Amino acid sequence: MALREVLADRKLAAQVTPSMALVEQLLRDKANLSGEALRNARALIRRYVDEVAEVLKVQVKQAPAAKLDNRVPPKRVFRNLDIKKTIWKNLSNWNEPERRLYVDRLFFRRTAKKLEPKRMIVVVDQSGSMVDAMVQCTILASIFAQLPHVDAHLIAFDTRVIDLTPWVTDPFEVLLRTELGGGTLIRKALVEAEGKIEEPHNTVMVLISDFYEGGSDQELLDEIVAIKSSGVHFVPVGAVTSSGSFSVHPWFRDKLKELGRPILTGNVNKLISQLKALL
Question: Are residues 101 and 26 in the same domain?
């Protein structure tokens, strides 16, 4: 109630420092806000989203990308010519009287092969316990969605499934369209996401959840196995938090590890590195 009073005053609201805890409270209470209070709440959420986005953008840039395959010889064309290395390796051929460098070996740079568009489908749990993951992953999805070779899709779920793809480039709008709370039907969300798969070997699917399924655990596991077997790069994520502390269903932790898809938990940097390599 005190927060609502603060939000109703523009000067007081401007002095509030946005944080994850505050964003969570605002998202839970947004249905009870209107007028000036709602405008100030939106401004606070926007500030927090922009601050986190700046941090994640830096981490995406710094994350190691996939290395070039050194087994593939470089194409011997002029645009790939490594001028500096060619000069350095041929310095022994320098002719002082003629003031000329005779080149008998050319060196070429290996260039990355042309990138094919990748489809990234992020399926994120929006139940109450997953607020931190929901905020960070919607921001992360928006960053990858702005890369030229990534076709990003975003699905949120609890007992319902919401396709948020039209707003995937704007995490602020995504968060305002989520309804936190409720149960968890993970398999239902995966079935919805499966309909977005066109080229399995060119698709990355990221599932962010605590893996406490409201339906049958075995049916959920069978659905994951089917998606993985189709050729989709399936990335299960248990927690994307700053603290790294989180509860993941132990049965799924063991089963997915046996499938060769261990659940990622902890810092968001792990997910960024893996996504960047796959994309």
Answer: no
Residue pair 220/248 in contact by the 8 Å Cβ criterion = no
Question: Are residues 160 and 216 located together in one domain of the fold?
Answer: yes
Express each pLDDT in 52-80 by its tens digit: 878 777 777 765 555 555 666 677 888 88
The pLDDT assigned to 58 comes to 77
**8 A C-beta contact, residue 153 and residue 165:** yes
Q: What is the spatial distance between Cα 81 and Cα 74, in angstroms, rounded to a whole number?
A: 9
pTM: 0.71
d(CA 210, CA 91): 60
Give the Cα separation of 28 and 219 in Å (integer). 31
Q: Are residues 29 and 91 in the same domain?
A: no
Lookup: tokens for 167 = 């707003």
> CATH number for the domain including 171?
3.40.50.410
Identify the weakest region by mean pLDDT among 4-13, 54-63, 101-110, 236-245.
236-245
Q: By residue range, what is the domain housing residue 99?
A: 81-111
**Shared-domain flag, residues 106 and 124:** no
